[in-house]
Amino acid sequence: MKPALFALLLATAAPALADEVLWDSYGVPHIYADSEAGAFKGFGWAQAASHGNVLLRMYGESRARAAEYWGAEHAPLDRYLIAHDAPERSRAWYKAQTPQMRANLDGFAAGINAYLAAHPDHVPAELKRVLPITGIDVMAHAHRLMQFLYVAPMGRMLTPPAAFKPTGIGDGGDGDAGGSNGWAVAPSRSESGAAMLLANPHLPWAPSLLTYYEAQITAPGHSAYGATQVGLPVLRFAFNNNLGFTNTVNNMLGATRFALEEAPGGYRLDGKVMAYRRVTKSLLIRQSDGSLKRESFMQRHSVHGPVFDVGGKPIAVRIAGLDRPGVLQAYLDMGKAQDFAGFESALKRLQIPSFNIVYADRAGHVFHISNGILPRHKTGGTHAFWAGIVPGNRSDLISTEIEPYESLPKALDPPGGFVQNANDPPWVNTMPRVIDPKDYPAHAAPPLPMSLRAQMSARLLMGTDRLSFAEFTRRKLTTTSLLAERMKGPLLAATAGSDDPDVAGARDLLAGWDNRFESDARAAILFEHWATNFAGPGLNDQSNFVRHWTLDDPLNTPSGIKDPAAATAMLKAAAQAVKSRFGRLDPAYGDTSRFSAGESVSVPGNGGEGGLGLFRTISWGPWSGATRVPIAGETWVNLVEFSTPMKAIATMSYGNSSQPGTAHRSDQLNLLSEKRFRQLWLTRADVERNLEKREGY
Q1: Is 223 a catalytic residue?
Q2: Total count of domains within the chain
């Protein structure tokens, strides 16, 4: 074909893009722009439309001015960010971006401002105090989310170790309530011969800075579909025609706490007395009458970092990577990459401070890395040592470098044909195992037990069979409890000699159960009650098992009942508790556990706590009478096969908007309840056929 004719056909097939948002019938924005900065503006416009209240609240907090806008209850977070020089650093980071990225950040901010100017009643007056948004605010929010929620959250940094109770939801704890799942299956294990990817984050359902937002973004040189957390201008979970990636929390130790040894005139370091650097900081606090009062405080700094009073003792906090302002650029470049080399080059810059990353592509590569900005400790030391409070009187314990990319645990195209992560340490990211903890720095990841959710994740993928996309989807949706599969037989054997009527009734009910947490399951609530007696409220206490978890047998331990009589008593107590709350031993699971996103819609639930070995993870809130609703769990769930044509399905459990009065807060709960997915509309023609409205910006 002649070049001129080819160019004409290309121009006919791909007309110039207009700056507009096409909203589909699930409230997903499909953004079409004729420039990269224009696409960012459209994304800002869309986020303001769908999550304006959450967005402005978060940006006010990330400016460290929330107390000024909304009152004294916000002052502790303001002080924490100000103590870390976050506002000043955000301005410096913004200036450090390329001219194109600064234009992008400015564009995102301009989109927010433009939408709220065009819709003056969209957000309440108290939130408008934050306007206008600037590109610096966008960077400040990314900085706050990454460094001061995931890496060095105030709750963990400023709480004495004995008093800290992890929840697993964005706080860096090691509970199993939050987190995420990620899978990548290689062509050798795929029926179609194409790689497949699962993105499956679990975080709180209540609107917050951890809320996910789904979008498609199309601009010259950039076309990606996926999700991100509200307030971020780039997709963190994304796929394009040639590759895709997802994230799970790994709690990499990017922050270190140091216990300072006080001395007259300062603190001791290497036997010498060092004077604190003292800086007067201030913030404005809105009073009940609407007036503003300035509060000043003296912030101390040691050579380690800012110093805080923790339990009456001076603790300095040091965060790695504060000289690395490229997290947004890295995610953008990962989404724009078209092959593994391009994708990995963005990762190798080590700008993303935390997170496991799971990847698959059209060329057939699958990849997992326990990624992050990890301090290099020349003295060595275990993960537990650096996770605790470190002696602050030795300069050799102060890290000034980070571990190189090569030192991070990872696996590319392992022989088992898959990689997985469910917030577990990286040592069992595939089977057979391909990485050994001894080959990596001891503080790179903890030698903790692999959770039962993570074990179920690996079990669902291991083998030699080839998975169709339908089977890949079916396995993702399984509600089978690995704890029930492993422990129900021993429990039935332990209770076989009991003639107690409560025990006998419970035993008979469990014996007829298929171990699945489906809405019609009649024994799931009983087993859950027994499990929390046996393995503790967090479902991670191994003291009642015969065998504890071991890396030598990571998918079959812990196991066995150490004390059959105690396990029997636990079953009796569980039976009595269930009958007391529900008036019967066998309530239907979906009658008690309901999917609701804070509105009148309530539908039967399924899935459950990860500690039960459930891959379909729902973290339920407290009981309200005989029912409960989710507080966290399945949120953005996306499955992709890199076939031709591409297959892509998803759900956003709590919907794609949190604004009051939206039609898109509860419109996907039925899909979740019925274990169905939406077919994603990837082409403009498909979007036009499922169009709710069209907006220019």
Answers
A1: no
A2: 2
